[in-house]
């Protein structure tokens, strides 16, 4: 029974790493495609830069997950805020005022959620790691930086 459980855990970990590799490769390809578009157009626009920033955030998220085995909840929220800001900036002329307000409110709600999560991590730090082992002194200094 124990051997089967270990095999299952290893299989899931392997699938996770394959999925992360696919996400990283796809993101690098998307960065290359976006750079190609900018070079061919001989123009760099704000939307292009924001899209590249989103791609870099995705790569950062993959890197953090590989290094720590944990996915900080705040990173996808940052990506969502940048994506909504990009949408707002690029389509502002065509958006109705109520939709513009809704997108701005969504960004505000995400920012408030990030602050609440950050406050929770600082105010109520984890005493144990995900595997149940106690934190070391070196890790105690980083518990609020997820």
From TrEMBL:
Q: Name one GO biological process term.
A: cellular response to phosphate starvation
Highest taxon of the lineage = Bacteria
| Gene Ontology CC | plasma membrane
Q: Keywords for this entry? A: Cell membrane, Membrane, Transmembrane, Transmembrane helix
Topology class, membrane: Multi-pass membrane protein
Q: Return the Pfam families for the record.
A: PsiE
Annotated localization: Cell inner membrane
Q: What is its main location?
A: membrane
- Transmembrane portions of the chain: 12-32, 44-66, 73-89, 101-120
- Write out the similarity annotation: Belongs to the PsiE family.
Q: What is this protein called?
A: Protein PsiE
Organism annotation: Thiohalospira halophila DSM 15071
